[in-house]
Amino acid sequence: MSESHSTRIDNPLGPMHTGSGDMYVTVGAQLHEVDRSVLRRVADDQLAWLRSVLVAPTGMGDARHKLDDTGTVILDGTPGSGRTSAARVLLREQHQDTGVFHELLPDEEELSLRDPDLVGVGDRLLLDLSAAEADQWAAARADLSTLRKAVHEQCAHLVVVMPRGSTLDSDLQQYRVEIERPPALDVFRRHLRVHGVPYEQYLQTASTVTDLPGDQWPMREIATFADLVRRAREAAPVDHGFARWCASARRAQNDRRKEIATVVNGLREGPQRALLITVAMLHGAHADVIHQAAQLLLSTLRHPPDELPILQRKDLAERLSEISAGTGPDGHVRFEELDYDAAIRAHFWDHVPELRQHLGTWTARNVDLNDPHVTREVRDRLVARLATQYLRTGRGEGLASLAEHWSTTTTSRVRLEAAVHALTCGLNDPAHGRSFRQRIYQWCANKQLKGEFAQVLVRVCADVIASSHPDQALLRLYHLARRERGTTLALQELCDLVATSGRLRRRLLDRLARSALSPAELRIFLPACDPMALIASHDNSRALVEENGVQNSVTMCWRAVLDGLPHMEWQPFAERWLHTATDAGHRGDLLLDLVVGAADQCDDKRGTTFASLYASARSAECTAPGGAARAAATTERLLQKISAAQGLALHDTPPPTESPRGTTP
Predict the structure, then answer these.
(1) How far, in Å, are 6, 199, 334 from residue 160 at the CA level?
(2) pLDDT under 50 in the chain at which residues?
(3) With the C-alpha atoms ordered 92, 93, 94, 98, is the resulting torsion angle positive or negative?
(4) For site-directed labelling of 156, which of 410, 504, 590, 659 has its Cα 20 to 30 A away?
(5) How many CB atoms lie within 10 A of CB 475?
(6) Pair 276, 266: CB distance under 8 Å
(7) How would you classify the pairing of strands 176-178 and 72-76?
(8) For residue 236, what pLDDT is reported?
(9) Where are the strands (E) in 98-206, listed by range?
């Protein structure tokens, strides 16, 4: 027979059958695709919010001009002056079509400020050292000149927030800008305006309201207070005005521990306290949800059931009135006092430690409730409130373990979403984010993952860590992809991540070339080394395939592929490689040089590998997008390069021993 049969696979990232026999693929309860868009919007939304509420501090204009002119600015200022918010807004204003935003973390294990591959074309980099110790600042300061040089070469932008009162080398003084806090009242009013509070309310003179922020308040506290005023306005009767909103917000800020302890002491019955805890944890949820959740809490705690007939029991309205809560016209339950729910949560967490473990079990059971009022928003708020208690009391490890437990026991889609949200809360917490990233690294790289925990880690790496720390996300996804079996979720996300940046793709190829190049790692290389991305122009019309380091990495990995994987497994990728080379000009020749050079290093299998490459080229002619004639010219160029590698003139070249058409070429 001379007829050729072939299958074209342009993007083989899913499970692929390449031989005889059955193939078994195990895929667990999948997280909704909506999770990706929701999580990926968070970072952009936060930056957009910062820009909308920022009152430009003194020095902001100078910082903006310095960043525009030199690509670098070093911000100095007193704590609470809004330095870090100004830094993020400055970088957001520099958004370009190329490059990504990422926060540099010089004290973590994976990156060095001296690493030349740390900065990509058009990247926006934040180095926040506002809370750094003296030794950390000294180490970072020593590397700043090297980092700034890389930033300049890559047309990138760098904002450094330096610790207050620290020294700066003379050659870096020209990049320093002093940030001075704007007036507190202006900041407060800007927040209220963005929150939608009517201007005729908040523009009244400060003398009429005694609870307005003073100039000694840090920017973060002003933002928190403004949000409390917004919430007080939303919960207040129509006849209440700005002064009463502010007073309510101020009461919510006060220390209410003694007040709450007195209230709890007066509620002696288990069902009363269960309802109090339930309303606090699910504040704002529908009354039906509150009722079910309160019963769930009693059963979780194995509280004896109520033996009274249904009609002789207190109804929900009466029970809610006993705990100073009520149901609004919308059917949702709230306490009368602003932030009363937060004080209740803190009281029971701090003073009934035996309850903590049960709250984790109860939260998971609530997440699984099949009720139309248990929406995604309700579940996320519940998980976030539980996470806040863990993080507030320095128990990040407990929160991480809870998320792992939710993912490895009997799982559902909503419970996996809850696990993702719990880890997201830890990652986004300023005090615990670093430890969560380190713990996730250990999980991804070293731990035997059970249940559906791997896909939870894929989600948080791809959609949470990658939004601000893409290099760390890349390394974690690499380990997950290297270890995954029966699915390619991590591999898909890894490929999507490196598609956002030539720098990240370069880092992955370098990482693979320095690895053991096991079959698992080669199966990462094949889809991640997309030939179209290699020939695409970047960095002033350069392409990755033209870089010596990338060429060395690709050659090393292709050699391992040709030498270690079956022909049927790498053939679809080789065909895509050859199709890309057809219309890529001199960069196409470079692609051919790389695979020929890789085959040339296959030692004992050198001749067989050359024949397999040629066979793949002949097969690729049948599926070439530009037609068989153009693909045949690529095959001829490949044959010439193979002949040159063998030291043979083309007319002396013996025919390869393999041919997909059943004849010699």
Answers:
(1) 55, 36, 44
(2) 1-29, 32-34, 37-41, 652-665
(3) positive
(4) 590
(5) 23
(6) no
(7) parallel
(8) 87
(9) 101-103, 124-128, 157-161, 176-178
How many other CB atoms sit within 10 Å of the CB of residue 223? 21
Q: How far apart are CA 272 and CA 542, in angstroms?
A: 69
Calpha distance 468→307 (Å, rounded)? 55
Q: Kindly give the pairing relationship between strand 157-161 and strand 124-128.
A: parallel
Q: Which residues pair with 607 in a beta bridge?
A: none
Check if the beta carbon of residue 80 is closer than 8 Å to that of residue 181.
yes
Dist. CA 371–CA 378, nearest whole Å = 11
pTM: 0.85
pLDDT score for 539: 58
Q: Supply the pLDDT for residue 3.
A: 39
Q: Which residue has the tokens 């020929």?
A: 596
What's the rounded Cα separation, in Å, for the pair 148 and 65? Answer: 17
Provide CB contacts within 8 A for 450, sequence distance 6+: 408
CA distance 278 to 270: 12
pLDDT in tens, 469-494: 999 999 999 999 999 988 999 999 99
pLDDT of the residue at 63:
96
Contacts of 145 (CB under 8 A, 6+ apart): 169, 171, 172
* 340 neighbors 228 (Cβ within 8 angstroms): no
Task: Tell me the one-letter amino acid at 108.
Answer: E
Take residue 574 and report the two structure tokens written for it. Answer: 């080789």
Rg (the chain; Cα; Å): 31
Which residue matches tokens 């991804």? 444
Sequence-distant (≥ 6) Cβ neighbours of residue 141 within 8 angstroms: 167, 168, 169, 172
Residue with structure tokens 């940030």? 179
Residue pair 122/78 in contact (Cβ under 8 Å)? The answer is: no
- Those residues with Cβ within 8 angstroms of residue 103's Cβ, 6 or more apart along the chain or in another chain: 125, 126, 127, 128, 468, 469
Give the CA-trace dihedral at 323, 325, 327, 332, to 10 degrees: -110
Q: Return d(Cα 250, Cα 390) in angstroms, integer.
A: 25
Asked if 224 contacts 342 with a C-beta cutoff of 8 angstroms, the reply is no
* CB-CB contact of 235 with 203 (8 Å): no
pLDDT at residue 199, as a whole number: 84
The Cα 316–Cα 36 span in angstroms is: 38
The candidate with the shortest Cα–Cα distance to 134, out of 175, 164, 103, 170, is 164
Q: What is the DSSP string of 488-532?
A: -HHHHHHHHHHTT-HHHHHHHHHHHHTS---HHHHHHHHHHS-HH
The tokens of 87 are what? 């830094």
What gap in Å lies between CA 403 and CA 381, rounded to an integer? 15
* 3-class secondary structure, 127: strand
Element housing 74 (H / E): strand 72-76
